[in-house]
# Entry
Amino acid sequence: MADLATVFHWTPADMDGMALAELMEWRERARKRVENNGTRTNSLLKFAYGLSDFAV
# Structure
């Protein structure tokens, strides 16, 4: 859910009512957006997951 919050700027409350299948669909959309946006969004996801730039 951290990747959805980072990519789409959603709060946990925004995702609370979603079924697991719906969350997985949105996660796939987030992944595609990250791949299309490049470095800036990748850096945000690394930050969200607590990864350094070297831990890819």
